[in-house]
Amino acid sequence: TAKASGDRYAFYAPRMTESSAGTLTLENQLRQALEKEQFVLHFQPKMNLASGGLTGAEALIRWNDPATGLVPPGRFIPILEETGLIHEVGRWALHKAIAEYLHWRAARRAAVRVSVNVSPRQLRDRGFVRDIRNAIDVDPHAAAGLELEITESLIMEDVKNSIASLQAIREMGVTIAIDDFGTGFSSLSYLSKLPVDTLKIDRSFVVDMTTGPQGLSLVSTIITLAHSLKLCVVAEGVETAMQSRLLHDLRCDEIQGYLYGKPVPSAEFEARYLLP
Ligand code: C2E
Ligand code: CA
Ligand code: CA
Ligand code: CA
């Protein structure tokens, strides 16, 4: 949720200044993790609510630390951002996610998309558009299979440059989703100008849907708004059948969440969602 990600940054910032030695150690560990290929991508399925079919997967990074096991991204993405390592790790994630997508596609198991999360520093980087181009250059089908998830607050920080970058990326055939929608404070006039294809409703709104009438009408309003702008709507963090049913009734296009499936390693994703 927005609060959690906001807290995350707030939590790491003071630690960076207080104990630079501790941070350095973690930084070195993360550098090594990159060299030793200890980062892994897990894939979480997205489902079309009308058909019940699989539409794609979100790639979510984990660090397979030999000492402690799988480390969730909330613990190390802020450090990668601070140190600039996010550029290299971000490029790795792009290439890896596209390779998985092409593998799924070559096996003709399903025409599903793969979504990759983009960090604030990545989008702000001048080389970002080129990184995307390089990543999709490996195969003529890569662009159509790739979606980037970019948070609303990130786009709003620098609207003009963001729009230019997103436009260039979209012209390559890559689709763009606004992540954690509703947690930022973007004005509606901006939303209609953003070159995006999909809007992901933040989990906090999905939770509030069943706690009172206001929550439900808020989600209903977001879906109507998105559809009036010809955007596809994905609800995040769907955990219950009740939430899924309500979203279906509100004509939400897709759901993602523990109800349909948790993020799993690629082999498991393939066995579970692509082979049957
Ligand atoms: P996000 O993009 O909002 O991803 C959704 C998060 O919600 C994931 O946490 C996912 O595992 C979790 N989730 C999915 N369904 C449910 C559900 O039904 N209930 C609950 N409670 N949670 C659910 P995760 O994997 O820990 O990732 C956290 C954040 O780390 C992501 O939030 C994203 O901002 C960031 N992240 C993950 N992978 C990458 C990456 O490759 N690059 C960048 N830059 N950021 C990443
Ligand atoms: Ca989030
Ligand atoms: Ca995301
Ligand atoms: Ca999200």
UniProtKB/TrEMBL annotation:
GO biological processes: regulation of DNA-templated transcription
Domain EAL: 23-276
Protein name according to UniProt: PAS domain S-box-containing protein/diguanylate cyclase (GGDEF)-like protein
Entire protein: shown range: 907 to 1182 of 1182
